[in-house]
Amino acid sequence: MALLSKAQIDAADDRNWEDVPVPEWGGEVRLLGLSGTERNAYQSSLVVLGPNGAVQRMNLADQTAKLLAKAVVDEDFERLYTDKEVKELGKKNGAVLERLFRVAQRLSGMRKEDVEVAAGNSEAAQSGASTSD
Fold first, then answer.
1. Range(s) of the domain holding residue 26
2. 56: helix, strand or coil
3. Which of 20, 23, 38, 68 has its CA at 20 to 30 Å from residue 77's CA atom?
4. 14 near 35, Cβ under 8 Å?
5. How far apart are CA 3 and CA 8, in angstroms?
6. Which has the minimum average pLDDT: 47-61, 84-98, 113-127?
7. Total domain count for the chain?
8. What is the distance between the terminal CA atoms of the chain, rounded to a whole angstrom?
9. 87/57 Cα distance (integer angstroms)
């Protein structure tokens, strides 16, 4: 396989999305997998650092709604909720939010099994060049 150029990487449309039925809300919701920057911002929002820069504690308040606020988009892939509207989204049915959260995690490669595959700790992962002829 040929090495990619910067222009080819930049031009690649690599973000996953999925329309998920939400009968409780009377329709479907489009979820877009987070970009690397969005994923890092979400993960950073869950950590409270102490004065020395070490992790002091986890901030799990509204963790589900925080992720969904970044992942729920319209048909033009524009976010429906801003970071300031997380609490509003978090007031919705917890079971629905959890169901959507799991899809958003999968699309963003945030599940434990996704991380293991990416790290090469799974049988599904292939690593390195083949030594066979």
1. 17-113
2. strand
3. 23
4. no
5. 10
6. 113-127
7. 1
8. 16
9. 21
